[in-house]
Amino acid sequence: MKTMKFVSAALVLIFLLAACAPAAATQAPAQATTAPAAAAKKTYTDMTLCYPQLGAESDWRTANTASFKETATKLGVKLIFSDAQQKQENQISAIRSCIQQGVSVIALPPVVETGWDAVLQEAKDANIPVIVVDRSVSAPASLYSAHIGSDMEIEGKRSAAEFNKMLPNGGNILELSGTTGSGAAVGRAKGFREALNANIKILDSQTGNFTRAEGKPVMEAFLKKYAGQIQGVFFHNDDMAIGAVEAIKAAGIKPGDLKMVSIDGTRGGFQLMIDGWLQADVECNPLLGPQTMDLALKLMNGEPITKEVLTDESVYYPDKAAELLPTRKY
Ligand code: AHR
Questions:
Q1: What distance in angstroms lies between residue 25's CA and the mean position of ligand 1's atoms?
Q2: Residues contacting ligand 1 via CB (< 6 Å)
Q3: Which ligand 1 atom is the nearest neighbour of the CA of 211?
Q4: Which residues on neighbouring strands pair with residue 83, listed in sequence order?
Q5: pLDDT digit string (tens) for 212-264?
Q6: Which among 9, 205, 224, 271 is placed 20 to 30 Å from 116, CA to CA?
């Protein structure tokens, strides 16, 4: 019995050796292992960009929307565009819908500064990078990838510098402010107050919500309340200035009677300078589509980016307005 077991074990061993040996002999020499192929670089045609636009309140905004739509078409980016009609809740719903659709990147022009933390966290949890565009948010910087836009405080400071030059002996002015709580209105008001000479007093400040329609009645009310007491008006944007000028004209005030400065540098603002109503227009550039999509592509490819991208801007004056108007893109 013992001999039988020994023979069987020996036979199994011989069989196994026989089975392995030819295989080893016929195997091809081991290939040098190649590194896994690097992930192909993504291009614009791989991008789905979500742009929950905040509204259509001004010529600036119209130009900003056009910049995103035209750039997307040119580059082959799929753009998911919506208009929130100046309502934060609409922007938040649009962002949530984009997250569900699994977009590549969200570019958010926030109507106001606060109230974004929860939805930004949702985008982060879904691994969708967010670029804050135009106005700022007050959310922690870890919740978004970058901000591209204007330095609103500098725009306010530049506006104040114009009043300091025009009213060296001081005076009383009024302010038509942008949307309450928006980064643009908050920053411009702050920078303006920081740089305004102490002898210039802001008698009143009311919002015209960045629109012509609201700028006009605010100015009408101002003119009734402060008749004969003011030397100037500061407008947070050109559309409110255009609306207000209708009220100013109707009150019998002539171009140049009041010192007026606005922000944006739109064609409408240039026309106000040509007509003698505005003494300076501080630039705020809305053409942010190309920069945003360039940055979005870098994020998709994991390339290094700059967190805060500020637009290079200047101040326009009436002396060059007629010459420059035909060259203005917005
Ligand atoms: O946030 C930019 C501002 O928004 C522009 O100055 C204004 O015209 C727009 O509505």
A1: 77
A2: 57-58, 60-61, 134-135, 184, 210, 237, 239, 263-264, 284
A3: 10
A4: 53
A5: 999 999 999 999 999 999 999 999 999 999 999 999 999 999 999 999 999 99
A6: 205
